[in-house]
Write a structure and sequence with these properties.
By secondary structure, the protein is mainly alpha-helical. Among the domains are: 64 residues, no CATH class; 192 residues, Arp2/3 complex 21 kDa subunit ARPC3 (Orthogonal Bundle); 226 residues, Hypothetical protein af1432 (Orthogonal Bundle), CATH 1.10.3210. Helix content is 62%, strand content 6%. The protein has 31 helices and ten strands. InterPro entries: HD/PDEase_dom, HD_domain, HDIG_dom, Metal-dep_PHydrolase_7TM_extra, Metal-dep_PHydrolase_7TM_intra, PgpH_phosphodiesterase.
């Protein structure tokens, strides 16, 4: 029979990732694709994603009445350029003009004065006539002084006063700095910064203009200093004139260094940053939009459109860490189950859709900062679906990951993570043990109560106002109702496309009033009876060892559906003395017997049964030997190989498949017992179980000897009750003898 093509979710994925591609590579490409899709979307929403923001901001214009409130949904910082310019101007004014003392001028001036004083003193010591002394000095220092000035200097030199006073005062003035301002000096500063070399090191000093020696105020300052030194009033003009001649300006403005200092100050200055907090009302409905409001609005738009490389790298590294955490939590060690490929596809798809929806809601919904925006996210829906379609532990683990992922949404309310996580955990818990779809309706009530409890905790810890708490609780209740209704509606759809054996689907598959089982009852009544008996044994045994009893029951119902179309070749369906195999060779009989497994697999796939049920159909005989026909073949051919008379399957890989194999074997074998007793059943059933164990048919499943003992005990209990009516009691024997 030709195998039908795959349908459903896995087939849709394979349109893009062909099944011919190695599974490991296909999974890798799927993970990378989901990562890139999510990363690109986050890039658009956070960087170029100002589209949403700009669409709202375009409604506002300065001088017009605002039609809507504009409430900030995240923290925004922007530079106030006007305030920054004022700050820079003030800071630049604090940078003093730089003046540099040139030491070579200082030394040259002092040397000239010293030489002049020595010449005067030498002339005086020669006791020359006054006119001759004047002419001699004029000859050596022509043009510096008039004859009258030289005469006054000679008078001072002959007096008790020392001309060395002039040298000491000049040295002090020049070392302090004799400033000459530029011709076009337009600075308004009252203090300058003078740099000089002193004792081999460069130092500077900020000096007020009032304390400076300048070329303009030198005469007045010298007169004051001389008076402070106690120089006679009659000699002060002579000393002043002498110093003015030899005091050369040695301190000059350095425009380049001043400009560099001011530029450095400008660069080191941080701009004035205005911070807008989440929840801040920028514009109030019904009020005129001011220029200040527009400045904030433009800042919001620019912030949304600005490319932030650091932020995008942060998102990338965060997502990588999130993916690694996800695969760690979904590994079989922590998830408790080995995920099938379709389940992995489903988890990735749901996670991406959840995060995309979360970003869209956070961008488009005007939510106040005190309200956790996760109250609008379908976290409970995701975890309920996962708890029912995969496992509760996987649901809780993924709920944790999705809650952490909300950090990608740029909001500052920590209760967003709290609500998302506990909502997901509560949703996974309330659907535990639900075997009927009606019970999902009852779980809605529990989820509503859980959401109210979570809202109460957030309201208490967040110190919400009564009105705020009522709003939070109302949204939480609506979220639980919305998620529960969607869960009830979407669950059958996902059950179908993922082909997952949920308890609801298995209960539907356990209905024996279907065309398939009615046809089995008509064409293969023995197989039908056998399947029902095997189902009772398998379900009870699976329940005892903690396996999925419902899966075992359904697998037992369907394990022999390959016998329907050729039921006459199987002993349970044959009338007395009408064995079709009497006319066939042992090899052909073995081929017919083996074919029912292959045909059963094909029928199961046509019925779109869950893969776990198909595995039970395929593995219920494992690779066991068809002993009867093998022995018959040995009678005619001693070289017959056991492989030719063995099933082509593999030993059971799950506990449920192993239980069905044992129930199938024991149910069929016990039909051959005559006058069975409990002791005889116990010994016989254990022999059948150990035969499977010794033939390595239980190597691939996780059954322990303790499990095998429980299975045997369950089988004995059920079959003892089944054969109870066949046991002959003494009273019955006496009655028969009396009749005879």
């Amino acid at each position: 029979m030709k195998r039908k093509a795959k349908t459903g979710f896995t087939a849709g994925i394979e349109n893009y990732f062909p099944s011919s591609m190695p599974r490991r590579r296909r999974r890798f490409l799927l993970v990378v694709s989901s990562f890139l899709i999510l990363y690109v979307f986050l890039f658009i929403s956070t960087q170029a994603g100002g589209f949403f923001t700009r669409a709202r901001l375009s409604d506002y214009e300065a001088g017009k009445v605002a039609e809507n409130d504009l409430i900030l949904d995240r923290e925004i910082s922007y530079i106030d350029q006007e305030a920054t310019d004022l700050k820079i101007a003030a800071r630049v004014q604090l940078v003093r003009p730089i003046f540099e003392v040139e030491e070579d001028i200082t030394q040259r001036s002092l040397s000239l004065l010293r030489g002049f004083v020595e010449t005067v003193e030498s002339t005086v010591s020669q006791r020359l006539p006054e006119e001759t002394a004047i002419l001699q000095i004029e000859a050596e220092y022509p043009g510096l002084f008039t004859s009258d000035q030289i005469r006054d200097i000679l008078m001072v030199a002959r007096s008790p006063f020392d001309l060395g006073i002039c040298e000491d005062l000049l040295r002090r003035i020049l070392r302090f700095g004799l400033v000459r301002f530029p011709d076009q000096w337009d600075q308004k500063e009252s203090i300058i910064d003078i740099w000089r070399w002193r004792n081999g090191s460069r130092e500077h000093e900020e000096v007020p203009l009032s304390e400076l020696y300048t070329t303009e105020n030198l005469e007045d300052r010298v007169r004051e200093d001389l008076a402070d030194l106690g120089v006679s009033a009659g000699f002060i003009p002579i000393y002043t004139n002498l110093l003015q001649v030899f005091a050369a300006a040695n301190t000059f403005y350095d425009p380049d260094q001043t400009a560099r200092n001011r530029e450095r100050a400008r660069q080191e200055l941080s701009p004035v940053v205005v911070r807008l907090d989440p929840g801040e009302r920028i514009v109030r409905k019904g009020f005129i939009v001011t220029e200040d409001d527009m400045e904030k609005i433009l800042a919001i738009g620019n912030s949304s459109a600005r490319f932030n490389l650091q932020g995008m790298l942060g998102i990338g590294f965060f997502m990588i860490a999130l993916y690694l955490l996800t695969f760690w939590l979904l590994s079989s060690r922590y998830a408790g189950v080995r995920l099938k490929e379709s389940q992995l596809y489903f988890i990735l798809s749901v996670s991406v859709i959840y995060l995309v929806a979360a970003v869209l809601i956070s961008e488009l919904a005007p939510v106040p900062s005190w309200l956790p925006i996760s109250v609008f996210f379908p976290t409970a829906l995701v975890t309920m679906l996962l708890a029912l379609l995969v496992s509760p532990r996987v649901a809780v683990n993924l709920g944790l990951v999705l809650s952490i992922s909300l950090l990608l949404i740029n909001r500052s309310n920590p209760f967003e993570l709290v609500f998302a996580f506990f909502s997901g955990v509560a949703a996974a818990i309330v659907v535990l043990g639900a075997d009927k779809r009606f019970e999902l309706v009852r779980s809605t009530l529990y989820l509503v109560l859980a959401h109210i409890g979570i809202a109460a905790v957030i309201g208490f810890l967040g110190r919400l106002q009564p009105g705020q708490f009522m709003s939070l609780a109302g949204f939480a209740v609506l979220n639980s109702l919305f998620c529960s209704i969607l869960n009830i509606g979407l669950l059958p759809f996902f059950e179908h496309i993922l082909n997952i054996p949920t308890s609801f689907r298995l209960i539907e598959l356990s209905d024996l009033n279907t065309p398939l089982f009615r046809r089995m009852l008509t064409l293969a009544p023995g197989t039908y009876s056998h399947s029902v008996s095997v189902a009772n044994l398998a379900e009870s045994a699976a329940r005892e060892i903690g396996a999925n009893s419902l899966l075992a029951r359904v697998g037992a119902y369907y394990h022999d559906i390959g016998k329907i179309d050729q039921s006459e070749y199987f002993v349970e369906n044959q009338p007395d003395n009408d064995n079709k195999h009497n006319e066939l060779k042992p090899s052909l009989s073995a081929a017919v017997i083996k074919s029912h497994v292959k045909i059963g697999i094909e029928k199961a796939r046509e019925l779109k049964l869950p893969e776990e049920v198909i595995e039970i159909v395929a593995q219920h005989h494992g690779s066991g030997l068809i002993n009867y026909f093998y022995v018959e073949a040995l009678k005619s051919d001693g070289g017959t190989k056991p492989e030719d008379y063995s099933y082509n399957g593999v030993p059971p890989a799950s506990r449920e498949a192993a239980v069905v194999m044992l129930a199938d074997t024991v149910e069929a074998a016990t039909r051959t017992l005559a006058n069975p007793t409990v002791a005889k059943l116990d010994k016989f059933i254990w022999k059948q179980i150990m035969s499977k164990f010794e033939n390595h048919q239980l190597d691939n499943c996780d059954l322990t000897f303790k499990d095998l003992e429980k299975i045997k005990r369950t089988f004995v209990q059920i079959l003892a009750g089944h054969f109870h009516t066949r046991i002959e009691y003494p009273e019955q024997k006496e009655g028969k003898e009396a009749v005879q």
